[in-house]
Amino acid sequence: MGRVYDATWGRGFAALYDSFFKSVEEAGLRDMRGELVGQASGRTIDIGAGTGANLDLYPADVELVMAEPDPHMARQLRRKVAEADREAELVEAGAEALPFEDSSFDTAVFTLVLCTVPDPRAALAEVARILKPGGRMLFLEHVRAESPGLARWQDRLEKPWRFVGDGCHCNRDTVATIDASPLRLERVERDKLPKAPPITRPLVRGSAVRAVA
């Protein structure tokens, strides 16, 4: 289960990813990441960890696992972890099939990932499986616009953007998908992704919890 990674564009996209996002990170995204992942506690999994943009932002006392299915991204992530001042376990696995036992994590994190996951419903069900009862999922995702006009443009441009963005769907209603999942939405804040194209600017950040039986 998972994406089919293009051997040429996928490699190039991974190589250029940090450069693409440098101005966005500096314009406020890195602060948003830090505020979000700073809420992590206990055993934590960063799902779709990419090149490791969140790595040095987690609290020092979390037991960190970073999962990334794209082999090109994972190669850069492995190098970044090797050079970091903190320990992290790396796993090459997609969000829909995580190689961990039930109820084995306190926190799960998605940052700009659910737009790209092939099956977000399956990914959220998998998160609910690996979280302990009362465990939290933290998310920061660009989403379908609330404005009907912008949403129509997202629909029109979804296919070309998916190619440019290496599988990114710009028109996903991620909040609705989380709300329909086994997780319970706890908090949702609407924001904007700084210095991003209009079709990827609408942003949400928040948390959801696995219900205690």
Can you walk through the features of this model?
The longest helix has 29 residues, at 9-37. The chain has 213 residues and is of the alpha/beta class. Helix 3 links the parallel strand 4 and strand 5 (131-142). It has one domain (9-210): Rossmann fold, CATH 3.40.50. Strands 3-2-1-4-5-7-6 form a seven-stranded mixed beta sheet, with helices on both faces. It is globular. Mean pLDDT is 91; it is low at 1-9. It has five helices and seven strands; from the N terminus they run αββαββαβααββ. It starts with 8 loop residues before the first helix and ends with a strand. It has helices at 9-37, 71-83, 120-130, 148-164, 174-179, and strands at 43-47, 63-67, 89-91, 105-111, 131-142, 183-192, 202-210.
Give short descriptive properties of this protein.
7-stranded mixed beta sheet, alpha/beta, globular, 213 residues, Rossmann fold, 7 strands
- Which blocks of ≥5 consecutive residues have pLDDT under 50? 1-9
Q: Report the biggest beta sheet as strand number plus sense, adding barrel if it closes.
A: 7 strands, mixed
Topology order in helix (H) and strand (E) letters: HEEHEEHEHHEE
What is the strand content?
Answer: 15-25%
Average pLDDT for all residues:
91
Separation, N- and C-terminal Cα atoms: 29 Å
Give the structural class: alpha/beta
Tally of DSSP helical segments: 5
Just give the CATH class.
Alpha Beta
**Percentage of residues assigned to helices:** 25-40%
Number of self-contained structural domains: 1
Strand ordering within the main sheet = 3-2-1-4-5-7-6
Looking at the overall shape, the CATH architecture is 3-Layer(aba) Sandwich
Question: Could you give me the name of the CATH homologous superfamily?
Answer: Vaccinia Virus protein VP39
User: What is the number of strand segments?
Assistant: 7
CATH fold label:
Rossmann fold
Shape: globular
Quaternary arrangement of the chains shown? single chain
Whole-angstrom Rg: 16 Å
